[in-house]
């Protein structure tokens, strides 16, 4: 699907890829991806049966990060390397708008991982549910002077997910949030073009 076709689709018909990563640290220049989860959506429908999750083998490991994601070096022993799941990731991103929480963090890691394989990715179509939530609050006349964390947004929509800080659980939480946000944005008669602008803090 061409970019123009994606941008001209209605929110209910557009296709999305909800992404979450677990990494060995916070610096994409020296840390690496060790888990990836992707959940497809079409409009308001979460296509959970078609989700993708994989641990990713890394030659680097920061033991301090275990407290955040619960992944130990032994868990990665038989995991595929990033290059082994690249095709799956690319297929699942094709023609879809990328959705995440702190999306630029994940994009930076993906770009660097792809660059090592000499694959150039632009990631021009993405939204961040935190930015969307801020946009929705501003639309309702409410000031936003703080960073909306994932747990706070989940509470807003009465969403409860077990196993937080697991890539798949966090991706599903993000998908549930995005589903609720889309419903509100549809009520606001938001176009898909504006959705992307709102989700990147360029509008509203």
From TrEMBL:
<dbReference type="GO" id="GO:0008408">
    <property type="term" value="F:3'-5' exonuclease activity"/>
</dbReference>
<dbReference type="GO" id="GO:0006260">
    <property type="term" value="P:DNA replication"/>
</dbReference>
<protein>
    <submittedName>
        <fullName>Exonuclease, DNA polymerase III, epsilon subunit family</fullName>
    </submittedName>
</protein>
<dbReference type="GO" id="GO:0003677">
    <property type="term" value="F:DNA binding"/>
</dbReference>
<keyword id="KW-0378">Hydrolase</keyword>
<dbReference type="InterPro" id="IPR006054">
    <property type="entry name" value="DnaQ"/>
</dbReference>
<dbReference type="Pfam" id="PF00929">
    <property type="entry name" value="RNase_T"/>
</dbReference>
<dbReference type="GO" id="GO:0003887">
    <property type="term" value="F:DNA-directed DNA polymerase activity"/>
</dbReference>
<dbReference type="InterPro" id="IPR013520">
    <property type="entry name" value="Ribonucl_H"/>
</dbReference>
<dbReference type="InterPro" id="IPR036397">
    <property type="entry name" value="RNaseH_sf"/>
</dbReference>
<keyword id="KW-0540">Nuclease</keyword>
<dbReference type="GO" id="GO:0005829">
    <property type="term" value="C:cytosol"/>
</dbReference>
<keyword id="KW-0269">Exonuclease</keyword>
<feature type="domain" description="Exonuclease">
    <location>
        <begin position="15"/>
        <end position="187"/>
    </location>
</feature>
<dbReference type="InterPro" id="IPR012337">
    <property type="entry name" value="RNaseH-like_sf"/>
</dbReference>
């Amino acid at each position: 699907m061409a970019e123009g076709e994606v941008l001209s689709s209605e929110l209910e018909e557009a296709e999305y890829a909800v992404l979450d990563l677990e990494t060995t640290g916070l610096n994409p220049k020296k840390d690496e991806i060790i888990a990836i989860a992707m959940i497809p959506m079409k409009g308001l429908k979460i296509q959970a049966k078609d989700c993708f999750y994989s641990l990713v083998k890394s030659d680097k490991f920061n033991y301090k990060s275990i407290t955040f994601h619960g992944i130990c070096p032994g868990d990665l022993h038989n995991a595929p390397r990033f290059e082994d799941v690249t095709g799956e990731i690319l297929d699942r991103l094709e023609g879809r708008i990328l959705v995440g929480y702190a999306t630029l963090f994940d994009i930076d890691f993906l770009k660097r991982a792809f660059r090592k394989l000499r694959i150039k990715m632009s990631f021009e179509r993405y939204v961040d549910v935190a930015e969307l939530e801020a946009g929705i609050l501003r639309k309702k006349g409410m000031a936003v002077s703080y960073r909306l964390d994932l747990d706070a947004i989940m509470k807003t929509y009465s969403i409860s997910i077990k196993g937080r800080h697991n890539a798949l659980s966090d991706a599903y939480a993000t998908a549930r949030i995005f589903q609720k946000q889309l419903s509100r944005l549809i009520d606001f008669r938001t176009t898909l073009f504006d959705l992307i602008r709102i989700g990147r803090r360029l509008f509203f």
